[in-house]
Amino acid sequence: MELVVPKNDLARELQLLQGIVERKNTIAILANIRLEAKEDQLHFLATDLDVGLRSHCGASVSKPGALTVQAKKLHEIVRALPESDVRISDEKGTSVRIAADNFTSRLQTMSLDEFPTLPETAAEPATRLPGDRLRVMIEKIQFAMTSGDQRYYLNGALLVIRPEGISLVATDGHRLSVVTAAIEGLAAKDEDRRILLPRKTVSELSRLLAETDGEVALSRGENHLFFELGTRLLISRVVEAQFPAYEKVIPRGHTKRVEFERERLNAAIRRVSLLSNERSKAVKLEFEPGKVEISSSSSEFGEARETLSVDYPGEPVRTSFNAQYLIDFLSVVGTDTVAMELKDEVSQAVMKPVGSEDLEYTYVLMPMRV
Predict the structure, then answer these.
(1) Lowest CB count within 10 Å: 130, 208, 225, 273, which one?
(2) What CA–CA distance (Å, rounded) separates 351 from 257?
(3) Are 65 and 36 in contact (CB under 8 A)?
(4) DSSP label at 161?
């Protein structure tokens, strides 16, 4: 293999591959990426056996070939190089030479035969989704995903595709975040398509969407999902599990509704939560006609409270929530005004944006007993 590639193009692709590579694993080859030079392109492949990423960039190839090299060290070297073309060549199949200007380095390689193979395409036609819309939707549910839960079907998000649009859903058992977008042109199906996306797939898809304009082409093979974003292809192993029936969790008919200025509510919760119990992070909300008092207390630190004026004519009710759960929603909701709907002290609360026209966003939050 011999080629010359612009440093910035190479560094950009290597940066995106870093999230895929598992540095702590029992299979040494998974710390490597596969490089292949052919025609006028340098092709990249990284995988942790569950998620993989294919990409490529333009290159001047004088000798085609392929090899695997340690992902982290290659990225560190390329990032530190001067702004010039990078010369890459393999040396007798045991190492690869990385050079630029007066700098030369040599990295050990591992056998290509040890690197896992991944499918390249799916048999079914792709469903095309607007990338900018999908990126915003992920942002609004990503914080509600859990990690390391024994109920592994919660360690990710549910993608629901309907003829009229798509939904993304995430829950950690204490809160539920659902966002729906109307999208024209989706193929009609007899029933909803429900696809469980692993946490890492959602995270890497979000990173790629931040770098890509245009549509995302989603297709499914026998055991893998494929997300095509321009010159990049994210590949995810299919998770065979049953996501909870989230529609049944969303309360209907709450009679108490309060609208808040998002920034005022967010700031008040942040201030009051500074003196909350460090373990529970609980803040209490007491609703009375014309006002809401937010308070916290802990035996170690003391107590804090703040009162907000609101348009609330209903009967008094008090409830408590994890402050961080409230802050997570308020940080991504994206509207100046938000609404909270309540039934009583022990039932789930529902929070929604007010004035949002592009997306339907619902956040369900379990109260705390303090």
Answers:
(1) 130
(2) 10
(3) yes
(4) E
Cα(186)–Cα(182) distance, rounded to whole angstroms? 10
Alpha-carbon span 198 to 189, nearest angstrom: 24
Of the candidates 204, 205, 201, the residue with the CA atom closest to the CA atom of residue 237: 201
Confidence of residue 150 (pLDDT cuts 50, 70, 90): low
Read off the pLDDT of residues 180-231 as tens digits, 9 standing for 90 and up: 999 887 765 556 789 999 999 999 999 999 988 789 999 988 889 999 999 9
Please give the pLDDT value at position 241: 81
**Are 225 and 193 in the same domain?**
yes
370: in domain: no
166 and 239 together in one domain = yes
Chain mean position to CA 370 = 32
What residues are paired with 177 via a beta bridge?
Answer: 170, 363
Q: Does residue 227 share a domain with residue 204?
A: yes
Count the helices and strands in the chain (H runs, E runs): 6, 25
Query: Is residue 122 one of the residues assigned to a domain?
Result: no
In angstroms, what CA-CA distances link 54 with 42, 212, 238? 11, 14, 17
Distance, CA of 116 to CA of 114 (rounded, Å): 6
Residue 76: what are its φ and ψ, rounded to 5°? -60, -40
Cα-Cα end-to-end distance for the chain: 65
For residues 138 and 232, state if they share a domain. Answer: yes
Q: Which two tokens stand for residue 158?
A: 């549910």
Same domain, 270 and 171: no
Domain that holds residue 102: 2-114
Tokens of 295: 């308070």
Helix (H, G, I), strand (E, B) or coil at 180: strand
List the CATH number of the domain containing 42. 3.10.150.10
Q: Among candidates 158, 326, 340, 183, which has minimal Cα distance to 245?
A: 158
Residue 332 structure tokens: 């991504």
Quote the DSSP letter at residue 246.
G
How many residues in the chain? 370
Give the other-Cβ count within 10 Å of 319's Cβ. 22
193 within 8 A of 154, measured Cβ to Cβ: no
Structural domains counted in the chain = 3
Picking from 114, 138, 169, the residue at the C-terminal end of a domain is: 114
